[in-house]
Amino acid sequence: MSDERLRILHLLSEGKLTPEEAEKLMQAMDGSTQHVQSPKENRSSDVKGKYLYVQVEPKEGKASERVSVKVPLALVKAGLNISKLIPLEAQGQIQSSMHDSGIPFNLSDFDSMNFQEIIEALEEMSVDVDTDESSVKVFCR
Amino acid sequence: MLPMLLRVKIHDENKSFKFCLPLGLVYLLLAPFLVLGAIAYMVLLVIPGTERQARSYLPLIKALPSLLSASIGTEVEVQSKEKDIAIYII
Fold it and tell me: pLDDT tens-digit profile of B34-44?
């Protein structure tokens, strides 16, 4: 039980608060606790219905292609999940070949904690790249 | 649920066509290979030298359908002066 609740009960026992007032205060505390918790719940909620967009728009008068890719975040999540299931021997081979290609990447770094952080970061991510030829946007929605 | 439909649209200067590929048929076509793969995997499980390694791949194999089902909703659109191509996984 939190300190605030104990304090309310203490005030109630001393008669400084009526039972109705104590109830109202308790309800208000519940509401504020739920309010504080809800963004976290939202963040850790399912990625269903959320997409990772990659859009390449050519600048006016430029002949480059317009590209639009929409990938469900669930696919990214499933991919990250599967990366954890790769056997250790195979992980070693993947890492060494990626390291040889100049991409230092450690699959074992994906534990359940930073996995959730990656998904949350992706949901809030927005990348804009502007060049003479085109503009590239990467975002989640 | 696995994706069941692949929609492809190709729009050219002269012609345009679109088609829907029922992925259920593709899965049916691939079913014999899946059966052969399963048999080969079972053989690997029986052989003492490869049993441990084969077993370590089991969670990965089990998770592969989830990757497929997560691909539902993927859309790729490429538009250029000559051609427009759009692919949707439904």
Answer: 999 999 999 99
Q: Provide ipTM, 2 decimals.
A: 0.78
- What's the Cα-to-Cα distance from B82 to each of A101, A135, B8, B16, rounded to whole Å? 35, 20, 17, 12
Distance CA A54, CA A52 (A): 7
Q: What six digits make up the tokens of A109? A: 């770094």
CA distance A91 to A87: 6
Nearby residues of B51 by Cβ (< 8 Å), 6 or more positions away: B44, B45
Residue B6: both structure tokens together: 């692949």
Provide the shortest C-alpha distance from residue B42 to chain A (in Å): 18
Q: CA–CA separation, B33 vs A6, rounded Å? A: 66
Considering only alpha carbons, which residue of chain B is nearest residue A56?
B78
Best to test chain A binding among B1, B80, B83, B90 (most A CBs inside 10 Å): B80
What letter does residue A86 receive in the DSSP assignment?
A: S
